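the four lines:
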Amino acid sequence: MSNIRDVADAAGVSPATVSRVLNGKATSLVSEATRERVLDAAQSLGYHPSAAARALVAGRTDTIALATTNIHDPHYARALDVAQAIAEEFGYHLLLMPDADDTRLQSLLRERRADVIVRLRYPVDTADEVAAAVVSEEQVVIAVGPIDRQMPLSTPCACWDDREGIRAAVEHLAGLGHRRVAFLAGRPAQRKERYALEAAGADMTIVPVCIEPGSLDDVGRGAALARLALQREPGVTALLAQNDTFALGALHALREDGIAVPGQVSVVGYNDTFLAPYSCPPLTTVRTPLAECVSRSLRQVMEALSTQHGAVQPQSLQLHTELVVRASTACPPTT
Amino acid sequence: MSNIRDVADAAGVSPATVSRVLNGKATSLVSEATRERVLDAAQSLGYHPSAAARALVAGRTDTIALATTNIHDPHYARALDVAQAIAEEFGYHLLLMPDADDTRLQSLLRERRADVIVRLRYPVDTADEVAAAVVSEEQVVIAVGPIDRQMPLSTPCACWDDREGIRAAVEHLAGLGHRRVAFLAGRPAQRKERYALEAAGADMTIVPVCIEPGSLDDVGRGAALARLALQREPGVTALLAQNDTFALGALHALREDGIAVPGQVSVVGYNDTFLAPYSCPPLTTVRTPLAECVSRSLRQVMEALSTQHGAVQPQSLQLHTELVVRASTACPPTT
DNA sequence: TATGCTCATGAAAACGTTTACCGGAAAGCG
DNA sequence: CGCTTTCCGGTAAACGTTTTCATGAGCATA
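prediction for all of em together
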């Protein structure tokens, strides 16, 4: 394993010069002749600087951490793709940290394992507690997620309002004539469930349905929830799913049970994942701007980090959600 | 930001003692009284040891790197889940390295950014070139992917034989009476395509169909490939897809064009992702043991790394593929 | 009391970089 | 020729750990 010292010896210069050549910010500091000699030596020795040593002295790890639950959900996988692309663009590495509670994120920061943490889909207003662990001016926590109420954050933040999306879905269903709708929730006391209830007008009832976490995968849970809803709540003519994956399961269950979608029951998803247009029938769903949020906020921070020398001032960004109407919703049957 | 020295001062001991307490392998080396004092001091100072400094001196980063293309494919997302779970179990971090060519993997190793690299889905027999960069006895490259021919590797390896799966699919279709089948390939000269051709018996023709990489997502490409196949290759009664995502697109296209599956055309997927049972109709597909391969080989290496002090001897593992028959295949129409 | 052993702890040397500081040579200018 | 300026590159001090070696205390044994 070769050192910077080995390279220096091979090129007949000092380690400092090698470092200067390899980091080469100001090209003027070293002559063209030595630069070439150093590069040759490094090349022929197969030299790569130790990330640890560099991080230790420079205080940067060139690493972005992505903190999220549910990497298996296509919606988050998309965000991961986006983050990866940006990391690559700026020469950073991507560290994955799923199911990360605040304590683990804080130690991640303190151990200096990452310069930037993108915290996905937790309610953004709890991000400040994590950000409190920020150690240097060059460490940032970015909060990306649904927002409850506008409030000033000390960290960069990109968010959207789930109420907006839910309201659009509910109004769409109400406009079609649905009067009784079931909300297929991941677990009890979901925020979205509250939104759905609050969005329901006087002429519409929303009944939440949920199921204890078990051995089922997400699609399976969606199927189970759909069956439960139709069996337990007579008169329900539409299902509003917690996410597209649940909706996919619901579609499958209804198809198996011989219930026509959207003829007898309408189904609305959430997130507009890449599966939604290809389901059977194509899924009406609410597009949430998760990927866009990650993309914009992360890029902004990375740019600030790479040019300006010092702290990143927290910028907030709020994007809109939007209902995408496809073929899984229609008027309720006229009985 | 607090040091190990700060903690030492606060506890009235030397840094060495703090290190001993915090790494605490042999509990007998430090007295109970000082141990508690140190832990208290560390706690109240919010101390976390610097990952960089630790990595520099100890030569380990406690990091597993996952090298793969296509994180957005549900099949790889599953592998990622598995790897993450194991990393967590052993107290390691997970670094993501998509689209990594050999050069980048080698510098990853040389920079010592990871102790273990899991290299997904490249032909396993090219892994040795990457492993050649292995620097210390405690660095490992694990090769996980389809295998062409059995050959001794210098690195741990978990693989399966795509020919096995392809053959099962082809025989299934042949048994149903299909005589002309299209293979929907990702790009020209795919290995699987070769396998498909070689698996076809005398009484069956396989025509490859492919399409230049473009702006389409994978599902969209599957749809386009299906349409292309049926238009360009008359007499085709079954489609064999490169992967489940393509198959999903194919199902969608056929449904849109009013072609009955499996009545008029049969469709076979590949990989058996979580979507396969829920497609419309449920997808007949070949189950490949990617996740299982990752799980087993990675766990074995991690255990070797954590107990035995020294090199990991390369163990090879080959698992079977298996055809999962669902509802997207049937006899060809009798014209 | 001298000897030897165990046990807890401290001192100091790595690990491989980056960077602030300094010195010397070359060059421009009077 | 002497002075200042510029440019190039070397020296050495960090960065925060882990780990080897040494030291000294306590204690048992002879």
